[in-house]
Amino acid sequence: MALESLAYLKVIASGCLDFISGHAPQVISQWAAVLHMAYPEFQAVSLKEIVHKLIERTMYNREAHTQSMLDFVEFFAGNAALSKELLRKQLRGASFDYLYGSSHDVLTASGLRLYIEALGSLREKGLSWLATQCSSYVVLCRATTMRFPSNDFLGNLSNPRVVEGNSLGLLSALLYFLAWVSLSCPVLEQPLNSCLPETPAWKYLLRWTKAICTTTYLGSFGGPSQKPLQLWHSRMEFVALSRPRPTWLGAAAESPVTRDGAKFTGRRDQLIESEHYTVQFGRAVADIVCDL
Predict the structure, then answer these.
(1) Nearest 5°: phi and psi at 25?
(2) Which domain of life is it from (predicted)?
C-alpha cells in the first residue's frame, strides 16, 4: 500500500478515536488499558500509536502474504455454523469462541491478542463477523441487568454478569473498529431487542463509521422461529441479508420468548436452538463475501 494511503488510514483512525473520546472518554481509556494488557511491549505507547502499528502490520501482511490471507474470521462463533458455509464456498477463514478452549477467551490478554492477530491476517474486504454474546443485553434479562438509557445501558454494575457483558461489548467494539480502519468488513449481529449498540463504545463508533443497520429474520432463512436480528455494517452489500418478517410461520412456530405485561420468560431449549445460524443464512452471507 502506498505511504499516502497508509497515512490516510492513520488519520481516519485518529479521527474516530478523537470523536469517541469527545463523547465517551472512558471508552478510550479502557481500550488503551486492554491493548496494553494484550501487547505489554507497547506499555509506553499511546492508544493511537498502537492502532497505527496494528494498521501498518495488517497492510504489510497483505502485501507480503497476498495468497495466504484469510477471507473471513468469525468471532463468538458458537457451533461455527456460519463458518462452515463460508468454508463450503472455498473461502479461507477461522472461527473463535471460548467454547473451543481457554486460549479463545477474549477476556484474557492472550485471547484478545489472538483475536487481534486474526484481524491482521484478513485480506482487504475480508469479513469479520461479531456475534457478541447477547444474554446480558436482551430485553428478556432487563429486569436483572437493569440496562436503561439513564445508565447508558451499562446496567447494574454490582451484577457480575453485567460487568462481564460490558467487557465483551467493549472488546467487540474495539475489534470492529480495528477491522473497519484496516479496510476489512466488520459486521455486528445481535437480536433485534439487544441494547448493545446503544452502549457508549458502540453508539459513537457506529455513528462515526456511518454504519448501516439491516433488520432481518432468521425464520426467513429456514429458522425454527422468527428470531429478528439487527446487523450493523458499513458496506451496502450486506443490506442484501434483509428479509421481511416471516408471517408464514404463524402459530406453527411457538416463540421462544413469551411476554406477560412487563415480564418476559424464555423457553431454554428453543432459545438455544435459535442461537444457531441456519444453512440458508450462512449461504447468503457466503455469497456476499465471495463477491467482495
Answers:
(1) -60, -25
(2) Eukaryota
